[in-house]
């Protein structure tokens, strides 16, 4: 034992840091939209923000090219949006994909989310509604 004080100390030098990136801002659209031509449909958004929501930026160019659009509903909340559906195109796909990204007050951005909008003619019945 007298010589053990000069022995090297055995240490566990493996340092493990558990780090989980915090979700500062997330955006989710729980349901796709199915509606008749030229109707207005409310868009349900789920926004979780650490610093408060500033704005949501939409890429709705495919919808706009046919006469539809995504617009703010005019309420006090920054997350209340509605889709104005275009006219039904006979023989066309009538399915439009739009994306959204949220920004908070500190300039952080969320993930991109996609919303599928299906336009039905006034006489068409929805057989199946898919939720992704």
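Sequence proposed for the structure above (132 residues):
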């Amino acid at each position: 034992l007298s010589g053990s004080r000069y022995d090297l100390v055995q240490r566990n030098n493996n340092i493990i840091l558990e780090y989980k990136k915090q979700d500062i801002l997330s955006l989710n659209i729980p349901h796709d939209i199915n509606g008749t031509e030229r109707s207005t449909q409310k868009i349900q958004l789920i926004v979780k923000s650490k610093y408060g929501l500033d704005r949501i930026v939409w890429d709705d160019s495919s919808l706009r090219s046919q006469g539809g659009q995504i617009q703010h509903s005019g309420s006090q909340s920054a997350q209340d949006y509605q889709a104005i559906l275009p006219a039904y195109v006979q023989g066309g796909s009538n399915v439009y994909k739009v994306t959204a990204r949220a920004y908070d007050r500190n300039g952080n951005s969320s993930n991109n989310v996609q919303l599928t909008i299906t336009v039905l003619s006034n006489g068409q019945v929805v057989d199946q509604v898919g939720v992704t």
